[in-house]
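Q: What structure does this chain adopt?
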Amino acid sequence: MTGFAWNLLFTAVSVAVVLSVTFAVALRRGRHSVIDVAWGLGFAAVALVSLGASAEDGDPARRWAVAAMTVVWGLRLAGHIAWRNRGKGEDPRYAELLGDGSAGRALRKVYLPQGVVLWFVSLPLQVAMFQDASPGAATYVGIAVWAVGLLFEAVGDHQLARFTRDPANKGKVMDRGLWRYTRHPNYFGDSLVWWGIFLTACDHWTGLLTIASPIVMTVLLARGTGKPLLERRMAHTRDGYADYAARTSGFVPLPPRH
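A:
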């Protein structure tokens, strides 16, 4: 097997290890929403494994840049979600999805699908690690797109956290700051992060072969995963959410509709 082929195996194993540990923690704590913390940690693990496996193959500048981009994003996301969920019970989205909450159902419905998606979405970073050409225009554009996405996501999370901390806002809809232009600035920023990482692999034609990865991530963020369940719950728990949804873009930031 080639170095890259071995890397694909090693990263798949790393994802399995991260999610296996997460599953054990979830069973002990009685809530599977802990996987939201493991999501970012899983990508960071893939990046670090690929960084080590590509030591004799890839361009050092690109390898370290991609590793740093992924780890910084993954750790920030994991830390934010861990802080946001501290002291809380099961996320209603997982409770609705899992029904009886059996371990087997959780493995089939949550852990296995998320593990496959995590590994598949990470393919651009794995390919980039093994490219021996020096970083070019696509890499620098990718870093810029990644930085905009990370900033958008972090600012959106900070604005929402500050809003929800104020008791006066209990039951109200967050429609300020970035949330005035999109109902999910964190999801939009997330998608930009992965388009940026994809672009870092596009100085070589092999990177283009991984374009399905950021497309899958974007579709899941915009149309799948927890978004429909979250919005359905918000419509029942937040006064004025229907009006907010009617005037505010669901994903790409746009001026509010009047």
